[in-house]
Structure formats: C-alpha cells, structure tokens
C-alpha cells in the first residue's frame, strides 16, 4: 500500500525567504510555496527568484509544491519554467484548473513531476473527473474563495455538493482523497476543528493551512481516534481470519455484520495511524 496523503499542507508566500525556510523546517507534512495569491504583482519576479534559490537543493524527504500563477496570467509561463528546473520531487500546484487538454500540455512541460490541481470555478467542478484523469495529475482539490464568489454561496452548506463531487471525481480517477481548502479564520481554531470534522465525514483526508498555528488542529481532526484504530485492527484480524477459514462474512463483537470488502477501509485506517506514529 502506498503512503497515505499528507494531513497538513502549509502555504507560505514565495516572496518571504525567511518564512519559506521556517515552513520547510515546520511539522507540516507538505509545504506549498505560493507564487499566486500571497504575492503582490510587483514582487512576483523577485519571489520566483527566491523560490529557485531556496528549493534548488530541497531534499527528497521534504514534500514541497509550488503554486504557480494561473494560465493566461503574465507570470504563468515563467513560473512553470522555474518549477521545471527544480528537483523532480517538487510538485506544481495549478490554480483555476478547467481545461484537461491544457493540463496535459502542462504535464509535458514540467518533466513528469506531479501536478496538483485546484478547481476554483463552476466549469472546473463540472470537468473534475476529466481533470483528475489527466496523466501526471497527483491530486485534485478545491479553491473555495473564488468558487464561493462564482456560485454566490455564503456558507459551507452551499458547498457540500461541490465538495462531494470533487471527492468522488478524485477517487474515481484513482487519485488519493483530496485535502480541504484552507480555513481563512486563523484564530478560530474551534471553527477550524469543526469544519475539518465535517470535511472528513465527506471523504477529505487533510487540509491546507495558511498559518502554522492551524497545523495541530488539522492533524488532530483527520487522524483516526484510538477507538477507530482499535476497531480497524479488529476488522482486519477477524476478516483475515474468516478468509483463512473459508468464511465469507462474520459479525463483530458489537453485532456489526462484516464481509471481506470492508477490510480495505480498515487497512487504510491502520496505515494512516502507523504512518503518523499512532501504532
């Protein structure tokens, strides 16, 4: 089984070398160095230079992505060229993904490195599966600020269907479960925790963060509880025992009916817990 997707992904502005260095040394599972929204137009060239220097020797064990400016902007092509010259494990995060053919062309320009797509429009949502199915795409996610504006949605309830659509599209295309869009209220950790729990129930596997103070709350919300780990272990042990004995189904101690098909979910829970030191 492959490694679980990251639980925490920390955005950091590319025009702040000091913050990039701190982010790379942080406890975030992955770092996203931003050349788009967090960088003002007048300093985008300087930010690109910082990224080229700071990430030139980033070690393979440090998961890193660079969010470039969207296709059609004056900075996109230079951003892509900069990422293409970085170590091969550095991923490219593409905002405002809408066109599968354009994504396929982009994949050919960046040396086979992983592409991480952000869907931020109604058209992108409608094309979510086609985008996720492009060779080279490693993950699919939502950029909810722009999407809220286009859909004229003010609260999370209006995005429930959209979030589920992206989860289903990613899984149908064979990609990992997506991570949630960043929670913008940095000091509201209780609200962040509740939002993360709601996202987890929809099938999301983690979340991007805009501040290091959010990382622990996100991690706690998406890690399985002690009870969930124990139940997953029981499921795996009982189902594997039933298979060895030639039995197709069985019942847990609490009366839950199980069959062989349910064991993969339990194995994924145990893999996640093991990866993050819970077992």
From TrEMBL:
<dbReference type="InterPro" id="IPR015813">
    <property type="entry name" value="Pyrv/PenolPyrv_kinase-like_dom"/>
</dbReference>
<keyword id="KW-0456">Lyase</keyword>
<dbReference type="InterPro" id="IPR040442">
    <property type="entry name" value="Pyrv_kinase-like_dom_sf"/>
</dbReference>
<dbReference type="InterPro" id="IPR005000">
    <property type="entry name" value="Aldolase/citrate-lyase_domain"/>
</dbReference>
<feature type="binding site">
    <location>
        <position position="146"/>
    </location>
    <ligand>
        <name>Mg(2+)</name>
    </ligand>
</feature>
<feature type="binding site">
    <location>
        <position position="120"/>
    </location>
    <ligand>
        <name>substrate</name>
    </ligand>
</feature>
<dbReference type="GO" id="GO:0016829">
    <property type="term" value="F:lyase activity"/>
</dbReference>
<feature type="domain" description="HpcH/HpaI aldolase/citrate lyase">
    <location>
        <begin position="8"/>
        <end position="212"/>
    </location>
</feature>
<feature type="binding site">
    <location>
        <position position="67"/>
    </location>
    <ligand>
        <name>substrate</name>
    </ligand>
</feature>
<dbReference type="GO" id="GO:0006107">
    <property type="term" value="P:oxaloacetate metabolic process"/>
</dbReference>
<dbReference type="InterPro" id="IPR011206">
    <property type="entry name" value="Citrate_lyase_beta/mcl1/mcl2"/>
</dbReference>
<dbReference type="GO" id="GO:0000287">
    <property type="term" value="F:magnesium ion binding"/>
</dbReference>
<feature type="binding site">
    <location>
        <position position="120"/>
    </location>
    <ligand>
        <name>Mg(2+)</name>
    </ligand>
</feature>
<protein>
    <submittedName>
        <fullName>Citrate lyase subunit beta / citryl-CoA lyase</fullName>
    </submittedName>
</protein>
<keyword id="KW-0479">Metal-binding</keyword>
<dbReference type="Pfam" id="PF03328">
    <property type="entry name" value="HpcH_HpaI"/>
</dbReference>
<keyword id="KW-0460">Magnesium</keyword>
